[in-house]
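This week, look over our next protein:
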Amino acid sequence: MPKRAKHLWPHITAFENLLEAWRKVQLGKRYHPAVLRFRAAQEEYLFTLQERLKSHEWRPAPCRHFRIREIKPRDIDAPTLEDRVVHHAAMNLLEPWFERRFIADSYACRKGKGTHAASLRTREFMRTASAQWGRPYVLKADISNYFASIDHARLLSMLPRITSDKDVLWLFERIVRHNGYEERGLPLGCLTSQWLANLYLDALDHFVKDDMGLKYYVRYMDDFVLVGPSKAWCWTVLDNIRAFVEDSLLLRLNPKTGIWPISRGIDFVGYRHWTDHVLPRKRTVKRAKKAFRRFPGLYRAGEIDLNYIRSRVVSFTGYMQHCDGHTTLEHIPARLVLKK
């Protein structure tokens, strides 16, 4: 069992650490009105926050709730500036201790990981499994309504594996049990939610890798992929995983969970994978085409500016550079002609 973090509270609540956390909160938002107000009296705010943490008087404020519809509709709960400072201050010290527990093939919200690393690892496993078994099968699954379904009591029982510091455990209990999330659920939009959600499924990772001894497994947050020698093998593995997820984690697998021959490819982390090539998702390309067709009219009407258009083009170009979509990349931006 990895060593646990001890005596972290004085370092988390140190003014220098709070100041560093505040610096991170400002990144990309330096001229936001709320950031400017906080910065005008930042020392006073941070000293007050420090005292409230030390005396255990700090409580999270209600999050700002909004809904985004890109890719798929999601409800976001954004914490206040002060709460984000607390989240960063905690993770400044605790991130290495979380990392010690995580397996190498968990890729979400971790430095040096991410979607592109997960994509490369998926292709590597596909090629290796194909060389080993000839015509392997794929098991792809995800957790149904994951963030909203995380059980608080079960999650809080996992945190002592990270730290034995009672003050830190108090802080995380305050963070977990707030904003209407009394027994289940973590708010999307919080830094700590990403790490806690990873910790919750870390138990599944170790069950698959250590207890079941399976090699070709990649997880990106609540989505995971396994490659195995046969369809029957995959069904047996799925039954074991489903039982573990339901009994140990109190979660449910999405009914869309599927098993198919590897020749059909794997749609995972934003791309469609085969052993010898990777293609963009059709819906991503379709959405980009639709957006780019609308840009000239919106630009002429003054509803968007060049900076907005440039950011979208750069984002799409970056996405396409990680797959075999050169023809698509040449045609879509080429049709974008802007006139006032």
